[in-house]
Design brief:
- There is one protein chain.
- This protein is of the alpha+beta class and about 140 residues long.
- The protein contains 3 helices and 7 strands.
- A 7-stranded antiparallel sheet has the order 2-1-5-6-7-4-3, with helices on both faces.
- This is Pyridoxamine 5'-phosphate oxidase N-terminal domain-containing protein.
- InterPro entries: F420H2_bilvrd_red/Heme_oxyg, PPOX_F420-dep_Rv2061_put, Pyridox_Oxase_N, Split_barrel_FMN-bd.
Length: about 140
């Protein structure tokens, strides 16, 4: 809306989650049901949200066990500043990783490219393992803000 400054703040357009905010708080759930909040980048593509993270991260382990997730726009540290939304997450098979990478590159550009380099260096040290994509599906009724 930069071209129409007089409308700034007056017209609320439906926004796909993941479209405008840079950081998100992602809640995943432990075996005992307690929530764990982690800051993450999310990027929209084709009606889904995508993330990219090391395969051995705890959030990936929790998602594999329980696909329920909640997410909210947040600051860099994962402190949410808007309402939580719920969804179902799945770890993408290697054949679908490109979809997540394209979405992340489209939204974050060079920041994401640097992140992938850092992830590869971590993989070389065998700490985080290979990178995986995460796909989050939300109900369409939750897409409007």
């Amino acid at each position: 809306m930069g071209a129409l400054p007089f409308l700034q703040g007056k017209v609320k357009m439906p926004v796909m989650p993941g479209e405008s905010d840079e950081y998100y708080a992602l809640r995943t759930f432990r075996k005992d049901g307690s929530a764990v909040c982690t800051p993450i980048w999310l990027a929209p593509a084709g009606g889904q949200l995508y993330a990219y993270t090391p395969a051995r991260s705890w959030k990936v382990r929790r998602i594999r066990r329980d696909p329920r997730v909640e997410f909210a726009p947040s600051d860099f540290h994962g402190v949410p500043h808007a309402a939580w939304r719920s969804g179902q997450a799945r770890v993408l098979p290697a054949a679908e990783l490109r979809t997540a990478k394209r979405a992340m590159t489209a939204k974050y550009g060079n920041k994401f490219r640097w992140f992938t380099i850092i992830t590869l260096l971590g993989r070389a040290r065998k700490r985080g393992g290979r990178a995986v994509g995460i796909e989050i599906t939300t109900s369409t009724s939750e897409h409007a803000t």
